[in-house]
Amino acid sequence: MTQAFAQLGLHDALLRALAELHYQTPSPIQTQAIPHLLAGKNVLGQAQTGTGKTAAFGLPMLQTIPIGTPHVHALVLTPTRELATQVGNALFQYGKYLGVRVLPIYGGQSYERQFRRLEKGVDVVVATPGRLLDLLQQKMIDLSHVRYLVLDEADEMLKMGFIDDVKAIIGQLPSDRQTALFSATMPNEIRAIIAQFIPDAVHVAVQQETMTVQQIEQRYYLVPADAKVAALTRLLETEDMQSALIFTRTRAASAELADTLIKRGYMASSISGDLSQDAREAVLRRFRNGDLPILVATDVVARGVDIPQVSHVFNFDMPQNDEDYVHRIGRTGRAGRSGTAITLVTPREVRQLQFLERFIKQSIPMAQLPRLEDIRARREALFLKKLEEMIISGEKDLGKQALEAILNAGYNLEDVATAALQLARADELEAPIEHIKTVHLAEARPDRDRRKSPAATSRRDGRPSSGGRERPVEEGMVRLKIDLGRNGNVRPADVVSTVAVLGGIQGKRIGAIRIQDTHTYFEVPEDAVKRVLTGMKNSKLCGKPITVVRA
Ligand code: ADP
Ligand code: MG
């Protein structure tokens, strides 16, 4: 079964573990790297995420190092704590029948626990550079027996500012060791490290062609910078989506976008540095299990995190560079499945898009956002489907009792059914559909647009800004104004909770919220205006008395 792996020269204990993991054939990077590493050579591997690098360096490592001694014999450096745990877990699985002891080390863990584990004996350490250097400097870890070093995702470590730490760590390792360096890209700083530390490395690479870009349906939407959330919401409503990974430029923007989506009724979460390690892992687990359909992340956070496959990748913010685009969309269309990659492009990013198309040697077609009618039709169809499912499934005990009661009261069946449907749909029909101004490609002249216009600049916190009143109010919604804004540290979540509680309406029925310096605009459905105005009379927001009026 794992004969192809056996042919690479791997021992039985490893083959057994691979069989259990249902690895049948080695991936290209594994086929190329494993024999060299088993032969004791240094290897420089260039391959994208998801190509199986962990086994490529891990299997030869486990076969090469002594296991069960008091000393650490192998060290893997990774850019993030997610990767450290993930690689640690994989190595543990691969080395299960060798009894390998793997210790992930990263910031945020208690020093004592790491120290205790080290004292008991560890064969392989998988670490982020910062914390490892800490431990080294405090002499809490002894790396003088390391004979196998792996620098995983070297370019990411560089991006995260770890490069000096990496060099300092390598400087403290025995020089008669074997080294493998993996990197998706080869920036100059990485080449310098290679030249300095592993000049004799065998270079193996998986070509771009083997990647799955071809199976991915790519398209882009041209949207005003301040309408990206509205555009995304429309797409989330209309795409046939199982799971989505949404990319933003900054961690703050990830957190904020996830927040906004939650407020709009989507199950979404971000993984950001603000979350505790446990919370981050919990989020990732839910996403992997399919319990959480939408994950919002930055390139750095998402890189290397093991996500089986997503049906959709959304580039909410365009990637900083072309290679990131390829990484991002590689998250979908994996393992022969088809996927969709959607990019939101603002007028001033049109030129960047053209460069990107040149880089991937494909043109990305532009598409039109779903219109209001499309969304309404979609909602209608989904509702009817749910209704039908409920009729077929027979799970309607609660409804039955109510129906008997109301029929006994003398109403006719058709009227009751119509009223019930209307009631059932009230929420979902009223979920706001924000207006989006159409931009035409011809207007989207990058040069002209680069001049800063207030409507196109993003605020520091990554939230699209906009002028106060000039933006049209959504259909069926009324704009109200609170006389407190950023000066009172008002955040969207404060507005939602206050309006929802005092105004007695559901948070998801609250439309666009815009916080200005001295006041805040928010929109509510027409039928709720009176209630909200009455409910919020003499109320407070963020501890300060406020007045709410129609804008
Ligand atoms: P990379 O480090 O290149 O991003 P990983 O080593 O994390 O890739 O592997 C990506 C996924 O592919 C993991 O879920 C891993 O278990 C799986 N995998 C790796 N090699 C094989 C293989 N030969 N056969 C089947 N699955 C594999
Ligand atoms: Mg990896």
Poorly predicted parts = 208-214, 445-469
- The H-level CATH homologous superfamily of the largest domain, spelled out, is P-loop containing nucleotide triphosphate hydrolases
- Helix/strand-derived category reads alpha/beta
Q: Count of DSSP helices? A: 22
Q: How is the main sheet built?
A: 7 strands, parallel
State the strand order across the main sheet: 3-4-2-5-6-1-7
Number of strands: 19
Task: Give the tally of structural domains.
Answer: 4
| Distance between the amino and carboxyl termini | 70 Å
Write a structural description.
It is a single chain. With 551 residues, the protein is an alpha/beta fold. It folds into four domains: 3-206, Rossmann fold (3-Layer(aba) Sandwich), CATH 3.40.50; 216-360, P-loop containing nucleotide triphosphate hydrolases (Rossmann fold), CATH 3.40.50; 372-430, no CATH class; 453-550, Alpha-Beta Plaits. The chain has 22 helices and 19 strands. The protein has a seven-stranded parallel beta sheet, with helices on both faces. It has a six-stranded parallel beta sheet with strand order 8-13-12-9-11-10, with helices on both faces. A four-stranded antiparallel beta sheet has the order 15-16-14-19. A hairpin with a 4-residue loop joins β15 and β16 (520-525). α4 packs across α5 (81-94) and α21 (492-503) packs across α22. The protein is elongated, with a radius of gyration of 28 Å. The structure holds adenosine-5'-diphosphate (ADP) and magnesium ion (MG). Adenosine-5'-diphosphate binds at residues 23, 26-27, 30, 47, 49-55, 304, 306. Adenosine-5'-diphosphate (ADP) binds next to α4.
